[in-house]
């Protein structure tokens, strides 16, 4: 039971109400034993908590994930669970929405028995054995709350955690408030649970989170402009894979594959690098084995310097240095080394996948598999198809992503694909805001207050400032021989801020060098502190360029950065890089820390109102005519002209033939 039917939340509910049903089961005189196989989630677990006993199959999973939908468990879950397992454990499960295994549920006291056999049969036998036992002590709602002496403190800490984790989300806080009410007699606690649920149920945040739930499933139903889609394309089995290049990304990808039970050839060209990678990968895997308490076959991974092992793999993921010539050479070599049917995938984050495909003997079997760092943690995978990728290759990469526990989004090849393409105007605006008078911490604080996991400058410091520097050099925007502009810098006819290049030239590459836009404890440090050097540097820069600093409010930071990103999202749609705006929202929520309770950038634009987004972009474009990314996209204009239709109708308004594919 995966709980209430989420689709029913946006239409009139039918059938018996769950709360009286569960109360009636619990109050009954006949013992009721819940047999749990597969999932008992949300209302499913709440129903089980209303039963007198619970037997779970060893592979079952239990949880109250309502918080991820912007809700609280509202069929007694917030009242029965703390009575059963105590406040701290119940708070943890309800605020995080995490699932627990049957084994952990037994340890926590949620279930009475775990079985390897058919849970239904075991439950029937169990019911027979308890048929004469009194039920009075089995009704959780009648149990007095297990209030430890330091309960106030526990609740306060949970509230603080809910605020911090939620980044503006209401549901985690409401979860704590509902659990807090379990101190009261059951009927009063239930009143509080219902009150909080009613408040959340109709909230925009719950709607946005439920949109995210369905979007993350909808992107699995991918399609390509040539008509190939999830429904008519068959994925190949991947019996063995190879990862080439064991830097940070390659190591993370290798860990993902092993955790999914896929044998891996992990290849490097340098002995020292290979040994360093072996140490890190094995340590990561051993940590996972301990955490998951599962038997993982660590022999699934074979580290090597020799290409001959690549003959036996079904798929290669290349994760070498971001250099087009190097990657092309590698792809040409792979064509002759690997079996002719082997899929060749690249983890490039911005190089042209079509160009890589032409370097091989099998362009139809080349796709991008763009993982996000840390690859073993971030749930997003961009699967990049070229004009020549076969449906089978796309289906295989999409299926592999799912097998690795990722949400895979199929996107067409274009510079930066989707995520990094939309990021560029966002980062660019942040740089202009510094020129105009803001500090990195002012910009970041506005963005983090909005709910982003990390502001733009903290994020850049984490990724390494040299990454973007290399891209800008390759694009001819900076570097030796590129003419420097005057006053405000201009490159290729448009406004260009060289601030990030200047910072890099000083050797400030972010966390890894101990300083970037912020100052850290030392190289590799994580604690960002505002840096007086950066402030002085910005002041001097403005002075030299004759820029009068002005005070920049939170609203301007958000509108300039977020609306520029959204505007590029509309251009991505116009170019039909993806089939649907939900793909952009999934990419941003899962890959870039965009707050899920706003639905994602495109959904958020709809909530703010497309006329407002358009109006503000027009305003900023008038003020900054030299910034093309502030020029509203044709699609945005068209949608507003058509009366701002809902997001699922946006694609209807794209003119045929606008695709660049
Ligand atoms: C103003 C008036 C106020 C009135 C107040 C109203 C009070 C109402 C009282 C209600 C009582 C509350 C009851 C309870 O507390 C609330 C809930 O239970 S909320 C639901 C909680 N459950 C979940 O969040 C589970 C969600 N599902 C999952 O996590 C996963 O789907 C899964 C179950 C782990 C399975 O995962 P997979 O095997 O990977 O499969 P998919 O995820 O791809 O799913 C397959 C398919 O099923 C659809 N689906 C799954 N769960 C639900 C669901 N709960 N409701 C609807 N649909 C569901 C999913 O979308 C997929 O569909 P497809 O994409 O294939 O069409």
TrEMBL record:
<dbReference type="GO" id="GO:0004165">
    <property type="term" value="F:delta(3)-delta(2)-enoyl-CoA isomerase activity"/>
</dbReference>
<dbReference type="InterPro" id="IPR029045">
    <property type="entry name" value="ClpP/crotonase-like_dom_sf"/>
</dbReference>
<keyword id="KW-0511">Multifunctional enzyme</keyword>
<dbReference type="GO" id="GO:0004300">
    <property type="term" value="F:enoyl-CoA hydratase activity"/>
</dbReference>
<dbReference type="InterPro" id="IPR018376">
    <property type="entry name" value="Enoyl-CoA_hyd/isom_CS"/>
</dbReference>
<dbReference type="GO" id="GO:0070403">
    <property type="term" value="F:NAD+ binding"/>
</dbReference>
<dbReference type="Pfam" id="PF02737">
    <property type="entry name" value="3HCDH_N"/>
</dbReference>
<dbReference type="GO" id="GO:0005777">
    <property type="term" value="C:peroxisome"/>
</dbReference>
<feature type="domain" description="3-hydroxyacyl-CoA dehydrogenase C-terminal">
    <location>
        <begin position="557"/>
        <end position="643"/>
    </location>
</feature>
<comment type="similarity">
    <text>In the C-terminal section; belongs to the 3-hydroxyacyl-CoA dehydrogenase family.</text>
</comment>
<keyword id="KW-0413">Isomerase</keyword>
<dbReference type="GO" id="GO:0003857">
    <property type="term" value="F:(3S)-3-hydroxyacyl-CoA dehydrogenase (NAD+) activity"/>
</dbReference>
<keyword id="KW-0520">NAD</keyword>
<keyword id="KW-0560">Oxidoreductase</keyword>
<comment type="pathway">
    <text>Lipid metabolism; fatty acid beta-oxidation.</text>
</comment>
<dbReference type="Pfam" id="PF00378">
    <property type="entry name" value="ECH_1"/>
</dbReference>
<dbReference type="InterPro" id="IPR001753">
    <property type="entry name" value="Enoyl-CoA_hydra/iso"/>
</dbReference>
<feature type="domain" description="3-hydroxyacyl-CoA dehydrogenase NAD binding">
    <location>
        <begin position="240"/>
        <end position="413"/>
    </location>
</feature>
<dbReference type="Pfam" id="PF00725">
    <property type="entry name" value="3HCDH"/>
</dbReference>
<comment type="similarity">
    <text>Belongs to the enoyl-CoA hydratase/isomerase family.</text>
</comment>
<dbReference type="GO" id="GO:0006635">
    <property type="term" value="P:fatty acid beta-oxidation"/>
</dbReference>
<comment type="subunit">
    <text>Monomer.</text>
</comment>
<protein>
    <recommendedName>
        <fullName>Peroxisomal bifunctional enzyme</fullName>
        <ecNumber>1.1.1.35</ecNumber>
        <ecNumber>4.2.1.17</ecNumber>
        <ecNumber>5.3.3.8</ecNumber>
    </recommendedName>
</protein>
<dbReference type="InterPro" id="IPR006180">
    <property type="entry name" value="3-OHacyl-CoA_DH_CS"/>
</dbReference>
<dbReference type="InterPro" id="IPR006176">
    <property type="entry name" value="3-OHacyl-CoA_DH_NAD-bd"/>
</dbReference>
<keyword id="KW-0276">Fatty acid metabolism</keyword>
<feature type="domain" description="3-hydroxyacyl-CoA dehydrogenase C-terminal">
    <location>
        <begin position="416"/>
        <end position="520"/>
    </location>
</feature>
<keyword id="KW-0456">Lyase</keyword>
<keyword id="KW-0443">Lipid metabolism</keyword>
<dbReference type="InterPro" id="IPR008927">
    <property type="entry name" value="6-PGluconate_DH-like_C_sf"/>
</dbReference>
<dbReference type="InterPro" id="IPR006108">
    <property type="entry name" value="3HC_DH_C"/>
</dbReference>
<keyword id="KW-0576">Peroxisome</keyword>
<dbReference type="InterPro" id="IPR036291">
    <property type="entry name" value="NAD(P)-bd_dom_sf"/>
</dbReference>
């Amino acid at each position: 039971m995966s709980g209430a039917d989420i689709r029913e939340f946006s239409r009139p509910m039918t059938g018996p109400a769950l709360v009286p049903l569960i109360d009636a089961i619990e109050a009954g005189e006949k013992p009721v034993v819940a047999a749990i196989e597969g999932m008992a989630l949300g209302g499913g677990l709440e129903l089980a908590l209303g039963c007198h006993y619970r037997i779970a199959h060893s592979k079952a999973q239990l949880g109250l994930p309502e918080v991820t939908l912007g809700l609280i468990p509202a069929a007694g879950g917030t009242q029965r669970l703390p009575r059963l397992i105590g406040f701290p454990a119940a708070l943890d499960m309800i605020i995080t929405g995490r699932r627990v295994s049957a084994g952990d549920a037994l340890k926590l006291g949620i279930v009475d028995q775990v079985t390897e056999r058919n849970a239904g049969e075991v439950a029937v036998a169990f019911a027979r054995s308890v048929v004469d036992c009194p039920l009075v002590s089995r009704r959780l709602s009648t149990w007095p709350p297990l209030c430890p002496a330091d309960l106030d403190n526990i609740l306060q800490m949970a509230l603080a955690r809910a605020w911090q984790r939620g980044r503006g989300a209401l549901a985690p806080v409401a979860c704590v408030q509902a659990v807090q009410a379990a101190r009261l007699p059951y009927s009063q606690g239930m009143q509080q649970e219902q009150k909080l649920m009613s408040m959340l149920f109709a909230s925009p945040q719950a709607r946005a989170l439920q949109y995210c739930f369905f979007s993350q499933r909808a992107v699995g139903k991918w399609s390509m402009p040539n008509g190939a889609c999830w429904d008519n394309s068959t994925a190949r089995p991947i019996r063995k894979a190879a990862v080439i290049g064991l830097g940070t990304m390659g190591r993370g990808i290798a860990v993902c594959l092993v955790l999914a039970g896929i044998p891996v050839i992990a290849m490097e060209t340098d002995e020292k690098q290979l040994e360093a990678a072996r140490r890190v990968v094995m340590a990561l895997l051993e940590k996972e084995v301990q955490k998951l308490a599962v038997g993982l076959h660590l022999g699934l991974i074979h580290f090597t310097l020799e290409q001959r092992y690549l003959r036996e793999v079904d798929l290669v993921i290349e994760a070498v240095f971001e250099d087009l010539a190097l990657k092309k050479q590698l792809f040409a070599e792979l064509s002759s080394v690997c079996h002719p049917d082997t899929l060749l995938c690249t983890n490039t984050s911005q190089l042209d996948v079509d160009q890589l495909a032409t370097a091989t003997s099998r362009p139809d079997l080349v796709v991008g598999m763009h993982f996000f760092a840390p690859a073993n943690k971030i749930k997003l995978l961009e699967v990049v198809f070229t004009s020549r990728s076969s449906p089978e290759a796309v289906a295989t990469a999409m299926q592999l992503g799912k097998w690795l526990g990722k949400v895979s989004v199929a996107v067409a090849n274009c510079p930066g694909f989707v995520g990094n393409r939309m990021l560029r105007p966002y980062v660019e605006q942040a740089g202009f805001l510094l020129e105009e008078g803001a500090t990195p911490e002012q910009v970041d604080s506005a963005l983090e207050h909005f709910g982003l996991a990390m502001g733009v400058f903290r994020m850049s410091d984490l990724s390494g400032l040299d990454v973007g520097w290399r891209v800008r050099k390759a694009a001819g925007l900076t570097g030796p021989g590129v003419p420097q502009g005057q006053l405000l810098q201009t490159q290729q006819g448009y406004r260009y801020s060289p601030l990030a290049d200047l910072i890099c030239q000083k050797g400030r590459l972010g966390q890894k060098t101990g300083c970037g836009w912020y100052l850290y404890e030392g190289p590799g440090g994580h604690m960002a502190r505002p840096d007086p050097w950066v402030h002085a540097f910005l002041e001097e820069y403005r002075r030299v360029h004759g820029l009068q600093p002005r005070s920049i409010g939170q609203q301007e930071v958000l509108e300039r950065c977020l609306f520029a990103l959204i505007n590029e999202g509309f251009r991505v749609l116009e170019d039909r890089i993806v089939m649907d705006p939900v793909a952009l929202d999934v990419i941003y929520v899962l890959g870039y820390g965009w707050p899920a309770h706003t639905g994602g950038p495109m959904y958020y634009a709809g909530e703010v109102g497309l006329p407002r987004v358009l109006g503000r972009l027009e305003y900023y474009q008038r003020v900054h005519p030299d910034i093309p990314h502030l020029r509203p996209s044709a699609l945005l204009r068209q949608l507003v002209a058509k009366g701002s239709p809902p997001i699922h109708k946006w694609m209807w308004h794209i003119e045929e033939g606008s695709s660049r594919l």
